[in-house]
User: Which sequence fits this backbone?
């Protein structure tokens, strides 16, 4: 594996202000969400809003380099959307990590692009395709066939949209936690009621599931040995034991690991 590695995920809400501006709506804020959802259904047959209208409320990441692991989040608890983006994008100015995501090439990175442009930010370290650094002509974060950004949903489907899978399903299948709780999407409620720890824990959970699937994918491809894979899994377990906000993730992982032959010994029996 090429270090450093940054596995990441974003959480978003519909940007009501921009939506009202785009569609010329003069409505009370309480009515905007429903109006924009209706317009979107008329446009595309789905409530899923166009990418440029996804306002980022949290970016979480799991970092691995020569010095160890770090789980982090930038959320609206402490930062505006512009500040969240500045902090995340500054990572690429300092280092050029291997970027790992689930559906990041179709959602997370394009949303970051639109929202960074909305706030007038510059991010050549992430979006340069060879104009500044000639090496990025052949290996950049945008090209789906390059490995500077590994979108696991895309590569595991062999770049065929008919084969796309849900992160939750693959995580469960492989013996990892997947999404905990009732599986519903509670991000708008978390933000409205200022449940910031629940928001970051949710986003970090997706990051951790993606990281564990990435390790399995690296094992499949022969990029790491079985002994390296086991060491990294155990290091992740040990690290998460120091992260109180991920106690539930670790507990669910311990139970789910019993369901497959390959993962049943990830947790020593004394900790079951």
Assistant:
């Amino acid at each position: 594996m090429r270090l450093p590695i940054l596995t990441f995920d974003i959480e978003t809400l519909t940007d009501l202000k921009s939506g009202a501006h785009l569609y010329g709506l003069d409505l009370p804020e309480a009515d905007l969400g429903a109006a924009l959802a209706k317009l979107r259904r008329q446009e595309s047959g789905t409530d899923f809003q166009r990418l440029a209208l996804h306002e980022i409320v949290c970016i979480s990441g799991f970092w691995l380099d020569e010095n160890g692991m770090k789980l982090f989040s930038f959320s609206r608890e402490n930062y505006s959307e512009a500040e969240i983006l500045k902090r995340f994008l500054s990572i690429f100015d300092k280092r050029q990590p291997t970027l790992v995501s689930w559906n990041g090439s179709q959602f997370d990175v394009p949303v970051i692009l639109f929202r960074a442009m909305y706030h007038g930010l510059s991010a050549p370290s992430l979006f340069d395709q060879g104009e500044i650094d000639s090496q990025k002509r052949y290996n950049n974060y945008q090209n789906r066939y390059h490995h500077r950004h590994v979108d696991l949903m895309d590569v595991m489907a062999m770049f065929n949209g008919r084969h796309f899978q849900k992160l939750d399903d693959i995580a469960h299948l492989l013996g990892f936690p997947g999404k905990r709780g009732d599986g519903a999407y509670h991000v708008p409620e978390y933000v409205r009621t200022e449940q910031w720890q629940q928001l970051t824990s949710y986003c970090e959970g997706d990051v951790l599931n993606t990281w564990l699937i990435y390790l399995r994918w690296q094992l499949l491809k022969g990029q790491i040995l079985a002994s390296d894979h086991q060491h990294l899994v155990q290091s992740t377990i040990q690290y998460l034991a120091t992260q109180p906000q991920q106690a539930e993730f670790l507990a669910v992982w311990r139970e789910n690991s019993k369901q497959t032959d390959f993962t049943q010994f990830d947790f020593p029996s004394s900790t079951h």
User: Anything to note?
Assistant: The chain has eleven helices and five strands.
